[in-house]
Amino acid sequence: MAAACTRALRKVGWSFLGSPSAHRSGTVSYLLGNVGARGSGRASGSRGPVVRSKLLSSLRAGGGRALGCAFLLGGGLGLYQTVKMTVQQHLAEEETKVSAGGLKLILYQYKTCPFCSKVRAFLDYHGLPYDVVEVNPVMRKEIKWSTYRKVPILMVGDDVQLNDSSVIISSIKTYLINKEKSMTDILRCYPEMKSVNDRGKEVTEFSNKYWLMLNEADTSGTYLEKGGQKEEMKWRQWADDWLVHLISPNVYRTTGEALASFDYIVREGKFSTFEGFFAKYVGAAAMFLISKRLKSRHNLQDDVRQELYKAVDEWVAAVGKKRKFMGGDQPNLADLAVFGVLRVMEGLEAFDDMMANTKVKYWYRRMERAALNHEGRPAGRNTEQ
């Protein structure tokens, strides 16, 4: 629309400059006559017609050319602004395309789920734009189209579905590094396996989910320190197999904490009014009881806070005093996994206790800044599928 207005202004300007003098004067008179007629209601006495007559005389003596120049100048400025806006918009689109690695991402999640938080931490750190679909944890209508009924689910484009937080992270990270494989090719490296656990429940697992599917050169370029890959995989698995199981027993440790946790869950989640009320009070009571069973299942000591403190300090010791992150100067996938899991407790008593009674605070704040500032934003890659 701006370009069309610019062209119109320039056309009018050239018509003033290129037309015969008599025609130009008539045109000016017609334009100013209309203006004068519309403005006569505000004029006082007889000065309106006199002023208008003098103005017309001056314009007939050469004002038409001045008006034409004004139109041309306005059109030129408009054209400049139009081109400037178009270039800026194009550059912004290209930057988004490059930073996203050419991926269109939709994350199906529960906001308070630690596994979903892991994926968000990864995407945020790498500056990958994504849309979020908050799933109703009761009905789960938002993922009724999927045979895989857990979250997170990450849709890549319209037809590639990534399940399991660790598979999502490994797949996308591989895609950002590996310049040769498509997302579909990468996904084949993480085959799905179904089995029945010791409680008779069918479970779905994924092979190789802590591996990045890289060639030798890319592996060497990604893991600069000897043993870096093995260390990253070990602690990513630790976050899934141990740390995440300390969250529920701690945030539902007492009836008061359970109620506060469900108040947060209902506030941040997608519930109807009835579901929210039911979840807050009945869910809090149920999870208070379930947390006791989880404590027994995972062989936790009676004081589950001490288990949390011990685990977090174990992580801080593994990072060490000489490194900002386990990944060195930048977070690696283990840093992002641990940060994502711990982050779901923010705003709750368990989080405040952890920050006050462990050595994790400085590492955690560095991670927070790294994710917020998208410090792992990729430089770009070939986006062909």
Verbal overview:
The chain has 385 residues and is α+β, with helices and mostly antiparallel strands. It has 15 helices and 6 strands. The strands form 2 sheets. Strands 2-1-3-4 form a 4-stranded mixed beta sheet. A two-stranded antiparallel ribbon has the order 5-6. The two termini are 35 Å apart. 32% of the residues are buried. Residues 1-10, 19-56, 82-100 and 380-385 have low confidence and may be disordered.
Major sheet: order of its strands? 2-1-3-4
Q: Treating each run of at least 4 consecutive H or I residues as one helix, how many helices? A: 15
Query: Mean pLDDT, rounded to whole units?
Result: 79
What is the count of β-strands? 6
The protein's oligomeric status is single chain
Order of helices and strands: HHHEHEEEHHEEHHHHHHHHH
Strand content: 5-15%
What level of helicity do the residues show? 55-70%
Shape: globular
| Largest sheet descriptor | 4 strands, mixed
What Rg do the Cα atoms give?
32 Å
- What is the first-to-last residue Cα distance? 35 Å
Quickly give the structural class.
alpha+beta
Low-pLDDT segments: 1-10, 19-56, 82-100, 380-385
Topology of this structure?
Blueprint: H1 2-18, H2 21-39, H3 47-99, E1 105-109, H4 114-125, E2 131-134, E3 153-156, E4 160-163, H5 165-177, H6 183-187, E5 192-196, E6 202-206, H7 216-222, H8 228-241, H9 247-251, H10 255-268, H11 273-297, H12 304-319, H13 333-343, H14 349-357, H15 361-372
Parallel strand pairs: 1-2
Antiparallel strand pairs: 1-3, 3-4, 5-6
